[in-house]
Specification:
The chain is of the alpha+beta class and about 260 residues long. It folds into two domains: about 1-50 and about 160-265, no CATH class; about 55-150, 2-Layer Sandwich (Alpha-Beta Plaits). It is about 65% helix and about 10% strand. A four-stranded antiparallel beta sheet has the order 2-3-1-4. The longest helix is centred in the first third of the chain and has 36 residues, at about 20-55. The chain is elongated, with a radius of gyration of 30 Å.
């Protein structure tokens, strides 16, 4: 019975309805291309944040005139909320590293006699603490035995902005997915019995194929748009294959749901 009703509705459609396949293909392609570019942007932001976080360190300089031991100062730094690690680097190790990086600078520095470099700690902060790095440094200044604190504030701000944009895109995708699922459920449960839904799955599979093809083609188009500018930056990160599969599946499901909405009107 449900199948006959469904076929009767399909036969009552105008011949011009065939153009709907082209429309959903283009709609899926457009939406998929936007999603793919946003996914690429998200992957780039995550990679930039990862590289900057690996490079970002706070250097605490030991007070040579203080009576505090290395372990006492180190424990004081580690006890500050938000500290991930604090590694002691003595003056000899720092001089050796500087010789490897810039031997000419070391030669001129040693010309004045002795090792002018101080003992230091290289400190790594937790990700959630980067936004309050100024507050952390204010607390670190109060640790006995700390003579100076050096770090790159602009690098910390760059990390925060990269993480913000990456998380914002992720939240946007989750919100869009929730809205899409809710819309699909509302359309599919409206005057649909299990047998009628099964019939629609079989009869309208070409709509799903058209939407999935359009969204899948958008992945190739996005790659074609991005690849020519690949060599402008050493960073090249492409979203994982599961994201591309999700875009194609969403395009197909969206086209099929659109067809069901059209049939009910």
């Amino acid at each position: 019975m449900e199948e006959r009703r469904y076929e009767a509705r399909q036969e009552s459609k105008k011949p011009g309805g065939r153009k709907g396949y082209r429309v959903v293909f283009l709609l899926a392609f457009s939406a998929g291309l936007s999603a793919e570019l946003l996914l690429f942007f998200r992957a780039q932001m995550n990679q930039i944040a990862l590289i900057l976080k690996d490079d970002f360190r706070i250097v605490a300089v030991k007070n040579e005139r203080g009576k505090e031991t290395v372990s006492e100062v180190e424990n004081g730094l580690k006890n500050i909320q938000g500290t991930l690690s604090a590694v002691f680097v003595d003056k000899e190790a720092r001089l050796k590293k500087l010789k490897d990086d810039d031997p000419e600078l070391v030669s001129s520095a040693l010309a004045v006699g002795g090792n002018p470099l101080p003992d230091t700690w290289e400190i790594e902060l937790k990700e959630e603490t980067l936004g309050g790095v100024d507050l952390w440094t204010e607390t670190a200044w109060k640790v006995p035995g700390v003579a100076d604190i050096k770090y790159k504030p602009l690098e910390a701000y760059a990390i925060l902005h990269a993480l913000f944009y990456a998380h914002l895109i992720t939240l946007g995708f989750y919100a869009a997915a929730c809205a899409f699922v809710l819309m699909s459920v509302m359309i599919l449960t409206y005057r649909k019995t299990p047998s009628g839904l099964f019939c629609a799955l079989k009869k309208d599979r070409i709509w799903f194929a058209g939407g999935a093809a359009g969204a899948g083609l958008s992945t190739i188009a996005a790659y074609g748009l991005i690849y020519p500018v690949k060599y402008l930056s050493p960073l090249w990160v492409w979203p994982g294959p599961l994201w591309h599969a999700a875009v194609a599946a969403a395009g197909g499901l969206g086209a099929w749901v659109l067809c069901q909405w059209k049939n009910e009107r």
